[in-house]
């Protein structure tokens, strides 16, 4: 269960010890998290704007900077999701250069987790795991189940028992083995560490975590490339385990080192739900540690009370001159609606967090109105429809008979109900 | 409400009369449907393999063969969805060259309707409509609502009252005006014809239908390009109104005429639910007409009992030497599960229809096992989760305490319940 790559290997963040490539996430000596260290000089000639442009239209165009074993043949066209100029939302929140990175439509399972899972499973196969899995708040479960099915590998997935029904169904449908755990994500994650050891499972975010996490860099590569190989002024990113926001920065730094973009300061802003805000609390307090919390929020995909990369994310954010904010469940739902109404993008609760936090940061003046700001949307609204339940009275509105006169009467009712002027043309049916 | 294009205009299918470009779907003289006729010679130099490859990675790379007004600036990166080699599903159904065209991840609203709506709305704006809309079985409602929001146009959408909750919510969230009609799709559609006239609404599939329908051609262009500018032997396509399958053929014919692909016979196979199968019935009977049906199926996105393009679709299928089949609701659900388990693709009920019909056609020998066959998946499973309700006992399975011993006991239970041998490694916890 080990392989050699001359380009990258596991390295301890703290003591600097190196470990080759194997399923290992923490340093046996000092217990710090391991990360993938690259020999960027070896990559330099192989990772240029031209080589990237000549690649496929998915994350594998960045393969030279991903930890994938030699000879790996990418199978799925994951990623390269749209970066959209958000003029309407920008107008509403007072920003002229706002962009949405839209992983709500990521292939294959509609969240950014598809990126990390595809990199992790490439390594799981190389390491010879017969069963893969994860601890998950939902999106990861969907992605592991789907990609394992496609690869013909068994999957065993552990989740907190109270996840959204759509996320549970969207795991079971791929014939994954799903175990609901009576506890929150942090309980599930601790159990997974034991299970991975005991059963020799390849858990993408446990023993394969360093490989998995590198997949998140592709969000950063894509943003830079889609901005015309330029870095933005600000990134607003949701935070659960704290990994994604750090990896976007790592991606930017690699692009600077390799000369694909000009060096410039980028400020990183983290977004959390107030009901689970250990990292935003840490940033606001100026801590270099986090105080674990017991999650209580509708943003279940962000409900990690003791985030593995929390301290590192907090320090990173503070170091860039950024900030972190958290919003209430009510604001989350408003954020979902605001993004849908203005840009036609239906995101899950985590995206509502990002949208609401972005608005607040602009209002606070922490993000300048003309700065280039990218808000990262990581998942699809169809997975958390229960968060909007009761929000739309129309869902149970009365059915109208299929006649023009009934239709006209109903429109009048609607106009009356919303206290708006009739929106009909003057030549209308009244 | 009219514009001129030297390249395309409305033309009557029957009498051949031409109408320029205006919001009109039927010939005032002979009542036959209008379609867009192109002057392909004008396009010849502008639509080559090279010009397409140099275009953006979405449907606008085919703009030269789409009816979009001069000066139109595409805003949304719609389409260019994955074409996946389906080795696992192929193995299960006995086909070696099976592909899935996967519009379950189409941007922005996860169905092929995004293609048609973007083309229709380009024209709606040119024609000056202040309100757009549609009659819809769900996916179209989602797409019109989302794209209208992004464009800042008002939307008024009419649906059968009993649509799936996820599709209703996924329309309301964009702040569209939604009217639930007490009737089936055919009732809704007739009402929309009256409403479009009375209120001067631009209904994408009513008075804008000829423009709208052309958007479906992009499915065909993409399949040919993704196969390396080759045509497949067979297309299996779900049928509701009967438009998509015809437009894929139109796309192939245009590519042949313009020399982008070699001419070869392609057989077209239509897929319907038995509970609403007017077109497959027509094909099976060898009719050149259809007998309208009253829909009764869980595949609500295909529940059109009196399909506008039904007769034309039936004749076309028969002319290519193809066939049509229909499957029961039980088979539809099995089709959804089969595609998910083998390829990691979660499709809606219509995709279950396509998958189940594809399997049957291969079993019948109507599709040869080594022929290149593309099954067209048009929508996402998260929109029809209710179709799978009760299918997975795990959804309400008991929650397991977060301890290794409890986990081990639960796995044993699962193994017992499924009557399988334990899937654990020999070194496991027993």
UniProtKB/TrEMBL annotation, chains A, B:
<dbReference type="GO" id="GO:0004794">
    <property type="term" value="F:threonine deaminase activity"/>
</dbReference>
<protein>
    <recommendedName>
        <fullName>Threonine synthase</fullName>
        <ecNumber>4.2.3.1</ecNumber>
    </recommendedName>
</protein>
<dbReference type="Pfam" id="PF00291">
    <property type="entry name" value="PALP"/>
</dbReference>
<dbReference type="GO" id="GO:0006565">
    <property type="term" value="P:L-serine catabolic process"/>
</dbReference>
<feature type="domain" description="Tryptophan synthase beta chain-like PALP">
    <location>
        <begin position="77"/>
        <end position="379"/>
    </location>
</feature>
<dbReference type="InterPro" id="IPR050147">
    <property type="entry name" value="Ser/Thr_Dehydratase"/>
</dbReference>
<feature type="modified residue" description="N6-(pyridoxal phosphate)lysine">
    <location>
        <position position="113"/>
    </location>
</feature>
<dbReference type="GO" id="GO:0009097">
    <property type="term" value="P:isoleucine biosynthetic process"/>
</dbReference>
<dbReference type="GO" id="GO:0006567">
    <property type="term" value="P:L-threonine catabolic process"/>
</dbReference>
<dbReference type="InterPro" id="IPR036052">
    <property type="entry name" value="TrpB-like_PALP_sf"/>
</dbReference>
<dbReference type="InterPro" id="IPR001926">
    <property type="entry name" value="TrpB-like_PALP"/>
</dbReference>
<keyword id="KW-0456">Lyase</keyword>
<dbReference type="GO" id="GO:0004795">
    <property type="term" value="F:threonine synthase activity"/>
</dbReference>
<keyword id="KW-0663">Pyridoxal phosphate</keyword>
<dbReference type="GO" id="GO:0009088">
    <property type="term" value="P:threonine biosynthetic process"/>
</dbReference>
<comment type="similarity">
    <text>Belongs to the threonine synthase family.</text>
</comment>
<dbReference type="InterPro" id="IPR004450">
    <property type="entry name" value="Thr_synthase-like"/>
</dbReference>
<dbReference type="GO" id="GO:0003941">
    <property type="term" value="F:L-serine ammonia-lyase activity"/>
</dbReference>
């Amino acid at each position: 269960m080990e392989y050699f790559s001359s380009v990258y290997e596991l390295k301890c963040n703290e003591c600097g010890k190196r470990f080759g490539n194997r399923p290992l996430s923490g340093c046996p000596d000092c217990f710090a998290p391991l990360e993938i260290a690259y020999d960027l000089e070896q990559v330099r000639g192989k990772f240029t704007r031209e080589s990237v442009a000549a690649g496929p239209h998915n994350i594998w165009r960045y393969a030279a900077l991903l930890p994938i074993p030699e000879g790996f043949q990418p199978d799925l066209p994951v990623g390269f999701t749209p970066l959209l100029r958000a003029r309407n939302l920008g107008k509403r929140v007072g920003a002229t250069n706002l962009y949405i990175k839209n992983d709500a439509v990521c292939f294959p399972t509609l969240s950014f987790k598809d990126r990390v899972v595809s990199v992790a499973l490439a390594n799981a196969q190389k390491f010879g795991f017969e069963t893969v899995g994860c601890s998950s708040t939902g999106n990861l479960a969907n992605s592991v189940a789907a990609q394992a099915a496609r690869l013909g590998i068994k999957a065993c997935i552990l989740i907190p028992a109270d996840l959204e029904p759509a996320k549970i169904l969207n795991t079971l449908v791929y014939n994954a083995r799903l175990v609901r755990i009576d506890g929150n994500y942090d309980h599930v994650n601790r159990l997974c560490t034991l299970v991975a050891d005991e059963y020799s499972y390849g858990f993408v975010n446990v023993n394969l975590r360093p490989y998995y996490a590198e997949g998140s860099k592709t969000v950063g590569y894509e943003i830079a490339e889609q901005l015309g190989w330029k870095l933005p002024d600000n990134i607003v990113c949701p935070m659960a385990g704290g990994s994604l926001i750090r990896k976007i920065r790592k991606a930017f730094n690699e692009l600077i080192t390799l000369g694909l973009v000009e060096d410039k300061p980028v400020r990183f802003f983290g977004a959390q739900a107030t009901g689970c805000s250990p990292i935003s609390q840490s940033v606001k307090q100026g801590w270099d540690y986090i105080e674990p919390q017991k999650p209580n929020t509708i943003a279940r995909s962000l409900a990690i009370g003791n985030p593995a990369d929390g301290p590192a994310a907090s320090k990173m954010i503070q170091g860039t001159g950024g900030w972190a904010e958290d919003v209430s469940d009510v604001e989350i739902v408003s954020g979902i609606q605001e993004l849908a109404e203005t840009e036609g993008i239906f995101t899950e609760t985590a995206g509502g967090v990002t949208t609401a936090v972005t608005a607040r940061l602009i209002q606070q003046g922490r993000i300048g109105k003309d700065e280039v700001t990218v808000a990262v949307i990581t998942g699809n609204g169809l997975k958390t429809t229960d968060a909007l339940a009761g929000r739309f009275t129309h869902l149970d509105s009365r059915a109208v008979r299929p006649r023009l006169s009934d239709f006209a009467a109903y429109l009048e009712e609607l106009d009356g109900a919303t206290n708006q002027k009739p929106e009909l043309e003057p030549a209308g049916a009244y």
